[in-house]
Amino acid sequence: MLKAIRFAALAVGATLLSVPALAQSSPVVGKWATAVESDFGKFEAVMTVAQEGSAYTVDIQDVQPEGAQGPGPMPGKISDVVIDGSKFSFKRQLTTPQGEMSLNYTGSVEGDTLNGEVGSDFGSMKLAGTRQ
User: Which residue of 1, 15, 28, 119 sits 20 to 30 Å from the alpha carbon of 95, by its own alpha carbon?
Assistant: First the structure.
């Protein structure tokens, strides 16, 4: 009986210690000023990563280059968001005037700095960002 009480006390203590760790969000969560370097130029955007329960969402608002002519930001859809500690990955499907474009984002966060890559049909591009 005494062993059962000790075990129950240890189990409750371990559970209470693990709750704050589960409640903490990833360092990836936040608003990021990002830039992607490509052969076609530099593309800037504001990327917002949010946590909703145990799931994460990503929203990207492209920044229209100053003085640029054209239709503006392209519509897109983000899926397959995975946040694992300070690492992230997700897919972005863009609708361009030339057709659909699939982008695969991967990277990590250290402090207020985000680094990664964006994979596309045209190759891999460097992604960099700072927390806003």
Answer: 28
Token pair 């830039």: residue: 35
- List the chain pLDDT tens, one digit each, 132 residues: 444 444 444 444 444 443 334 446 899 999 999 999 988 889 999 999 999 999 999 999 999 877 666 666 788 999 999 999 999 999 999 998 889 999 999 999 999 999 999 999 889 999 999 999
- Asked if residue 7 belongs to a domain, the reply is no
User: H or E element: which one contains 52?
Assistant: strand 41-52
Q: Is the pTM of this model over 0.90?
A: no
Determine phi and psi for 14, rounding to 5 degrees: -65, -40
- What residue numbers bound the domain in which 53 lies? 26-131
